[in-house]
Each structure stands twice: as C-alpha cells, then as structure tokens.
Design brief:
- This protein has about 140 residues and is of the alpha+beta class.
- It has one domain (about 1-139): 2-Layer Sandwich (Alpha-Beta Plaits), CATH 3.30.70.
- The protein is built from 7 helices and 4 strands.
- It has helices at about 10-15, 20-30, 45-50, 60-65, 80-90, 100-105, 130-139; strands spanning about 1-10, 30-40, 70-80, 120-125.
- A 4-stranded antiparallel β-sheet has the order 2-3-1-4.
- The longest helix is centred in the C-terminal third of the chain and has 11 residues, at about 130-139.
- The radius of gyration is 14 Å and the shape is globular.
- It binds 2'-deoxyadenosine-5'-diphosphate and magnesium ion.
- 2'-deoxyadenosine-5'-diphosphate binds near residues 62, 92 and 123.
C-alpha cells in the first residue's frame, strides 16, 4: 500500500552533520522525501508529537532533548513506507540496533545524554494513525 509517514532527523543527527547520510539511506531503499524542512521545534509541537509518552519517566528529558537544537522534519512516501522506514531506522536502543540500520551504523560511543535520554538520531511514525497525526502537527 502507498503510504506517507512522518520522519525526523533529531538534534543529535543535525549536530553531527548526518542529514545527507541519513536522507540518502532513505532514498536508497526506494522511499521518497515528499517534503523536508529544518525547524526549531516549538514546545507545543514537541508536547503534541510525544503526547503518547506523557507520564513516562523519560518524558520531560525527551521534550528537552527534541527542543535542544534544530531538527529536520520530513514526509516520507512509498510502498509500505511506515514499516520499511522503521526497519531502516533500527531498534530504539542503538546498542541493540542491527548492522545496516541508521541507528545501528551511525550511533556514537555514548548513546545516553546527560538527561538519561537515548540519542538515536531519527524518529519515524509507528502506525498509520500516528503517521497521520504526526504529519498534521508539522505540515
Ligand atoms: P522509537 O523512537 O523507537 O519509536 P519510543 O517512541 O518508544 O521509541 O520513544 C521515543 C524516544 O524516547 C526514543 O526514540 C528515545 C527515547 N526513549 C525511549 N525509551 C527510553 C528510555 N527507556 N530511556 C530513555 N529514553 C528513552
Ligand atoms: Mg515512537
């Protein structure tokens, strides 16, 4: 099925200059960047994006991290884009992410920041419902 999903390069990826490396990997598996924009995420946008994580121990640190520097927000389009992009991203924990995945291949030595937040370079929607919801926040 042709799908659209929300994809984002997080502040750690932008700070390390990995934007082209990461978008190149997305395009090489045949997915298309239908839109792409660099922003400094507003607090309200961050709260909306991470609404499903409200109440979790890492929530406040996650909001601080995602608003700590510029991010690149994207709409990614293609056949089964949601699942294929998540597979390309790899496991949430970069130390558990497989070779060949963005999080596995591009992780830095320290994957936890000073707030206890996992730095894993990228975000991708995990379901059709969240893809729709997340795209609407930023586009
Ligand atoms: P994913 O980004 O793989 O969809 P998620 O939605 O469960 O993972 O969590 C959102 C982000 O929050 C994740 O990319 C990194 C951070 N995070 C998740 N679980 C965490 C934990 N137990 N401790 C610290 N940071 C965490
Ligand atoms: Mg998630």
């Amino acid at each position: 099925m042709l799908e659209r999903t929300f994809f984002m390069i997080k502040p750690d990826g932008i700070a390390r200059g990995l934007e082209n490396e990461i978008t190149g990997r997305v395009e090489r598996i045949g997915l298309k960047l239908a839109a792409s924009r660099e922003i400094n995420m507003a607090l309200e946008e961050a709260a909306s994006l991470y609404q499903p994580h409200v109440g979790k121990s890492f929530y406040n640190g996650l909001i601080r991290f995602i608003t700590s520097g510029p991010v690149v927000t994207c709409i990614v389009e293609g056949e089964n884009a949601i699942k294929r992009l998540r597979e390309l991203m790899g496991d949430t924990d970069p130390l558990a992410a497989a070779k060949g995945t963005i999080r596995g291949d591009l992780k830095e030595a320290a994957v936890i920041n000073e707030d206890g937040i996992i730095k894993n370079l990228v975000h991708g929607s995990d379901s059709p419902e969240n893809a729709k919801r997340e795209i609407a926040i930023f586009f």
